[in-house]
Structure formats: C-alpha cells, structure tokens
Amino acid sequence: ASSSGYGAVMKSSTQQKKMEAVEQDEDMLFIHKNVAGRAFTLKDGIWVEHGVDAQSKKIIPVKFMEKDYIKLLNKSNGVKKILALGIEVVFEWQGKVYKVIK
User: Long-range contacts of range 82-86, CB-CB < 8 Å, 24 or more positions apart?
Assistant: First the structure.
C-alpha cells in the first residue's frame, strides 16, 4: 500500500472509523451495566435501576458510608454488588426504593 496519496487517505479514514466505533462501544459499556440480575443506567453521574422512578417521593435517602449505608451494605451480596456501582445509586430492594447520596 502507498504511504501517500489516495491509498494513505483511505487507510487513515478506515482506521479512524474503526477507532470511533471502538470508542463508541466503550462509551456504551459505561452507560449501561447489569448487576445482581438488574439493569442500571448511568444518568448525570447517578446509577439508576431500570424501572425505578429516581424522582419518587417514596425514595429512602441513604448517605454514602454512614450508619444506614453500612446497614444496607450488609443486607446481602446483591446489595453489595449494587452499591459497588458508585457513590450515587438509585435502586429497589425488597419493596423499598433507596437513593445513595454523597
């Protein structure tokens, strides 16, 4: 293949498209995750479980790393995996909706 001219431009263009596709795939991995058999989406820095209303008035706020957070963390391995997503997480567990906040 030629290192200049049409061939080089086409090769560069093809490589750029491949790189953009890889970057897009990597972005998708960070936006959606399946944890403990549940699907989560990262929205504005907060992991939200699919089907859970993050704006609900019935949400139980839990401050990250405080007493109630530790209690929640110790409920089950499933909750541990969910909380491992990040500092701010909204999820439903045993009929209650929790929102971990900073």
Answer: 82/35, 82/36, 82/38, 82/40, 82/49, 84/35, 85/33, 85/35, 85/40, 85/47, 86/42, 86/45, 86/46, 86/47
